[in-house]
Amino acid sequence: MTCEKDVAKLEALYAGRSVYQGELHDHADTGGTSDGGRTLDHWKGALEALQMDFAAILDHKQVRHMYLPQWDDSIFIGGTEPGAEIFKPDGEKLGTIHYNMIFSDPKRLEALLDEFPEYEFTGGTEGHFGYPRFTRERLGELIDAVKRHGGHFVFPHPSSMSYGSGKYDSSPDDWWIRDGVGIEVPYIRLDCEETEENYRIWRHLLRSGARMWVSAGGDLHGCAHDWALTSIYAEEKRSACFVEHIRRGDYTAGPVGIRMCIGDTLMGGTCDFTGQRLVVGTGKFHRSVRDPWHRCRMEIWADEEIVCSKEISCEEPAYAALDAEDHRFYRTEVFDETRNLRIALGNPIWNKKYYPDDQC
Asked: Which CATH number among 3.20.20.140, 3.90.1440.10, 3.40.50.2000, 3.40.50.1010 corresponds to the domain 4-351?
């Protein structure tokens, strides 16, 4: 049962923050080695028309897009999407993957590329780099470096990669290299086959003990769309602010604002559940899923089961609270019953009893 004290606790933890909704995986036509079909000016106009607040432009093999005069840190999040061939130490090829490295500051991205000679980064605003060969161990070192340089690392579209078996019934070791990284679940659209398989991969990873944050991305190379949004509660509409919350896992993969706490710990965190209350709130539904005639539910998951299901409205905030019990983690989903579609995924809060080392 939710009481005024529960709601006040959640509101206090998120005080001064508003929900912003946009895209975390896109490409634009920015010259050089970019392969997007639309300019940054197109994106600016399209975001406004679609009532979106931001887009992450992750062009391949370059950083020049983050230096263009059309770049606006209140709209665009920077970074890049490299690829890599992954090999065993004995030289056997495991597969080929892509990965997103999200940064608000191009200088930090350049410092990372300089740190890894495998990229052969030529440096500077117009500098370019190639796709390296990595072992899993070296890929882990890259992930550590991305975090150290203030960025965020995401494995995009895992179900379509050739790395390992790449399917949800594969070994979690295919994708679990480090905790505290993202794995893309909503991909292109909420209702496509890739999204469903990515969801199964993420569920499998959670069951296996990985602390990997759910992410979303349209991977758009043409016109902007609002089909695979991310919702972030942030203090201001600014790239650096968005990235800081993404790095902590305190965001929602989907077009609905979700807030969650256990004690003072927010989504993406790890804490002691003993004697604590879990509080969840849902807020703004983006225009793409806001339909007052649809029946929607807030579902709170504890490990592999739903422990609370509550009908909610797309037009009003909703809250739920319960005593935290001895589970490995809690997380929240929003489900549209009318469409029979999962529309938003919140990141878990993990129990320190089972995850004593906070590697996130």
From this structure: 3.20.20.140
What is the bridge-based pairing of β-strands 76-80 and 54-57? parallel
What is the distance between the alpha carbons of residues 318 and 38, in angstroms, rounded to a whole number?
38
pLDDT above 70 covers what percent of the chain? 98
CA-CA distance, 44 to 70, in Å (whole number)? 9
Instruction: Dig out the tokens for 166 from the structure.
Output: 């790449």
Half-sphere exposure of 140 (CA within 13 A, CB side): 12
Taking the whole predicted model, whether its pTM rises above 0.90 is answered as yes
CB-CB neighbours of 42 under 10 Å: 17
Nearest 5 degrees, angle CA 26-CA 29-CA 35? 70
Spell out the alpha helix ranges (H) of 213-349.
239-247
DSSP string, 33-68: T---SS-HHHHHHHHHHTT--EEEE--TTB-GGGGS
End-to-end CA distance of the chain: give it in Å, rounded: 31
Q: pLDDT tens-digit profile of 70-116?
A: 999 999 999 999 999 999 899 889 889 999 999 999 999 999 999 99
Neighbours of 126 (CB within 10 A): 12
